[in-house]
TrEMBL record:
Keyword Membrane appears in the UniProt entry: yes
Species this chain originates from: Lactuca sativa (Garden lettuce)
Protein name (record): Protein DETOXIFICATION
InterPro entries (UniProt xref): MATE_euk (IPR045069), MATE_fam (IPR002528)
Membrane topology: Multi-pass membrane protein
CDD domains found in the cross-reference section: MATE_eukaryotic
Length: 485
């Protein structure tokens, strides 16, 4: 009898293991269906910015510092607001798709366009008065003048964010974002020859580099418009409608809480770049710190794919009312993301200094980057955890709580620690980066605790209430402009 019982227990254990492997495999396929196109799209989109920086780095060290300043401060400031506000689209579209309210997704998308367009237009002085702003915060005059000129060139570029960010979130909520991956690959592919043409063939230098950046970024948006308006989203896009102007206030509220959450995260790096600008050799410090940040953020684009996947999977399952599936999704996401993070951690440790010469020919900047290589590697490893946790928070609509966590961990811990170590010790730029890591570690630990303590059954109820507030029946929503028109 004991042998029979033991055999049965072994068989049951094998069946449980087999069932667990099958569930992990099924969930992994769902995750990668959203994550892979998101990773490709984000890597390519950010890649165009990094490639432009690389070209400018071989034109002038002052312009490289100016570009780094604009990209790290102005663009990240505006992009943070728009990305954060657009994540409201991610929450609403993901939960609507899970609840079967497909026709509402097109309305949420249009509402986001309205809110984001108005917001970006209000923020334009950040680019128009770039020189004055950089001088006001104490940057060197030559860097401030270069940054002010580059800021004006960034204006046509940043308007693509209004559409590219929201459309990607709208499509990935329906697992239809593979099209964005293909368009993004083509965008990145044409960006390099465009840059070579404008910079060297037409002898346009810095202006040519910025012109190529704007052209390639808008190619992505035009491709997305063709896909949506061309009838490839028949269930979620019913045409333009006046319903997009209704109930804007609740969307604005959710967008603001989303915006604050993401902004506090993205601006954190910007403040640290600003600290680097007050170092004794500002050009080298800003260039080295910014290049390391760009390498860090480029790898982060992979994990932002998992952020998008986390948001979609959590939002979809909450929309369906399945709290158990949410918990299982979080475990599989973290396991996958950390495995990839370990791979890049080893890669950065191995090729730290060699990466520097892709972005600059200045030996001083390359040496400064080499000194930061270990800290950069550790940051890359942390990238595999906190974006996934942020995605879980966005999918559940918990942006407000995470915004508070980001503020405390980044601005009351990370930045003061970076300033203290950077200016009162011999660590300098290394000290600033240690502060960066300190803020990220405390944020990660806090959000892990927050998610661990979350009652997911209660989150299911909140998702249902949220969708109920915004819901319009299809026959109550008169579309005034059809796709045919």
């Amino acid at each position: 009898m004991d042998d029979e019982m033991q055999t049965k227990l072994i068989q049951q254990g094998q069946e449980d293991d087999s069932d667990l492997k099958r569930r992990i495999w099924v969930e992994s396929k769902k995750i990668w269906r959203v994550a892979l196109p998101g990773i490709i799209a984000r890597v390519c989109a950010f890649g165009t910015i990094v490639v432009t920086q690389s070209f400018i780095g071989h034109i002038s060290e002052t312009d490289l510092a100016g570009y780094a300043l604009v990209q790290a401060l102005s663009v990240r400031f505006v992009n943070g607001i728009l990305l954060g506000m657009s994540s409201a689209t991610e929450t609403l579209c993901g939960q609507a798709f899970g609840a079967g309210q497909n026709h509402m997704m097109g309305i949420y998308l249009q509402r986001s366009w309205i809110v984001d367009l108005i917001t970006l237009t209000i923020l334009l002085p950040v680019f128009i008065f770039g020189t004055q702003i950089f001088k006001l915060v104490g940057e060197e005059e030559s860097i401030a003048n270069s940054g002010g000129y580059i800021s004006l060139w960034f204006i046509p570029f940043v308007y693509n964010f209004v559409f590219s960010l929201t459309i990607q979130m709208y499509l990935q909520a329906q697992s239809k974002n593979m099209i964005i991956a293909w368009i993004s690959i083509f965008q990145f592919t044409i960006h390099i020859p465009l840059s070579l043409l404008f910079i060297y063939k037409l002898n346009m230098g810095l202006s040519g580099a910025m012109l190529a950046l704007s052209f390639s970024s808008w190619f992505l948006v035009i491709g997305e418009f063709i896909y949506i308006f061309g009838g490839w989203c028949p269930h979620s896009w019913k045409g333009f409608t006046v319903a997009a102007f209704k109930d804007l206030l609740p969307v604005v509220k959710l967008s603001i809480s989303s915006g604050v959450m993401v902004c506090l995260e993205l601006w954190y790096n910007a403040f640290l770049v600003l600290l680097a600008g007050y170092m004794e050799d500002a050009e080298v410090a800003i260039a080295a710190f910014s290049i390391c940040l760009n390498i860090n953020v480029w790898e982060l684009m992979i994990n932002l794919g998992f952020l998008g996947s986390a948001c979609v999977r959590v939002a979809n399952e909450l929309g369906r009312g399945n709290a158990k599936a949410v918990k299982f999704t979080i475990k599989v996401l973290l396991g996958t993301s950390i495995t990839i993070g370990l791979f890049f951690f080893i890669l950065c440790l191995t090729f730290g200094k060699k990466l520097a010469y892709l972005f600059t020919s200045d030996v001083r900047v390359a040496d400064a980057i080499s000194d930061l290589s270990f800290l950069l590697s550790f940051s890359v490893l942390l990238n595999s955890v906190y974006p996934v946790l942020s995605g879980v928070a966005v999918g559940a609509g918990m942006q407000g709580a995470v915004a508070v966590v980001n503020f405390v961990c980044y601005y009351l811990i990370g930045i003061p620690l970076g300033a203290l170590l950077g200016y009162t010790t011999t660590l300098e730029v290394k000290g600033i980066w240690i502060g960066l890591i300190g803020g990220v570690i405390t944020q990660t630990i806090t959000i892990i605790y927050l998610i661990w303590r979350t009652d997911w059954d209660d989150q299911v109820k909140k998702a249902s209430e949220r969708l109920g507030r915004f819901y319009l029946k299809l026959n109550e929503d008169p579309y005034e402009i059809s796709n045919e028109s």
